[in-house]
């Protein structure tokens, strides 16, 4: 029964991923790249082997990451893997997300659990949150004018308070 539930969840997750355009999927991955690299650093070789099994990365990349993992460490191998994924095909990006979802118990991270559950429950809305975080709230032109007036008024009012704070 747990397998059916997991397979159902994976099917739902795939549906969410299919609902995102290439650009949206890449933007999501690029925005979360640092967190994903941290998660992947727990076992980058397993992750790249899973992607190789899905035929979305080459044997050469797998061997190169194995060497990097042994010589430099798993963090660097994970960074290189994420760099490769972000710069490659949609299948590669989707393969990464599907593998992380399917193997989420192997990669014990509260951040990964939170990201995957938010993506599964909110879908495209997570992209709106990313836009707000990176671009801020986009105000209509007439409200921008009031915003700037209010901001300058606050700065004028608070400026006299600055010397008093430094004396304390």
Structural notes for this entry:
The structure is a single chain. With 168 residues, this protein is mostly helical. The chain has two domains: 2-136, no CATH class; 138-168. It is built from eleven helices and no strands. This is NACHT, LRR and PYD domains-containing protein 3-like protein.
Please describe the structure with a list of short key phrases separated by commas or semicolons.
0% strand, 11 helices, NACHT, LRR and PYD domains-containing protein 3-like protein, 168 residues, 2 domains, mainly alpha
Query: How many structural domains are formed by the residues?
Result: 2
CA-atom Rg in angstroms: 22 Å
Structural class: mainly alpha
Overall pLDDT score:
82
Which series of helices and strands comes N to C? HHHHHHHHHHH
Q: Please tally the helical runs, counting DSSP H or I stretches of 4 or more residues.
A: 11
* Helix proportion range: over 70%
Question: Could you state the oligomeric state of the chains shown?
Answer: single chain
Protein name: NACHT, LRR and PYD domains-containing protein 3-like protein
Organism: Callorhinchus milii
């Amino acid at each position: 029964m747990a397998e059916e539930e997991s397979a159902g969840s994976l099917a739902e997750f795939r549906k969410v991923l299919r609902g995102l355009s290439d650009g949206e999927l890449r933007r999501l991955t690029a925005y979360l790249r640092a967190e994903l690299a941290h998660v992947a650093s727990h076992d980058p070789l397993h992750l790249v082997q899973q992607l190789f099994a899905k035929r979305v990365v080459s044997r050469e990349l797998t061997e190169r990451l194995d060497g990097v993992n042994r010589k430099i460490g798993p963090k660097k191998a994970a960074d290189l893997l994420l760099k490769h994924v972000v710069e490659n095909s949609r299948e590669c990006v989707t393969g990464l997300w599907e593998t992380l979802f399917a193997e989420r118990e192997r990669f014990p991270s509260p951040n990964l659990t939170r990201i995957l559950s938010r993506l599964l429950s909110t879908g495209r809305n997570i992209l709106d949150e990313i836009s707000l975080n990176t671009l801020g709230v986009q105000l209509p032109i007439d409200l921008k004018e009031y915003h700037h007036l209010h901001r300058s008024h606050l700065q004028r009012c608070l400026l006299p308070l600055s010397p008093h704070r430094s004396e304390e």
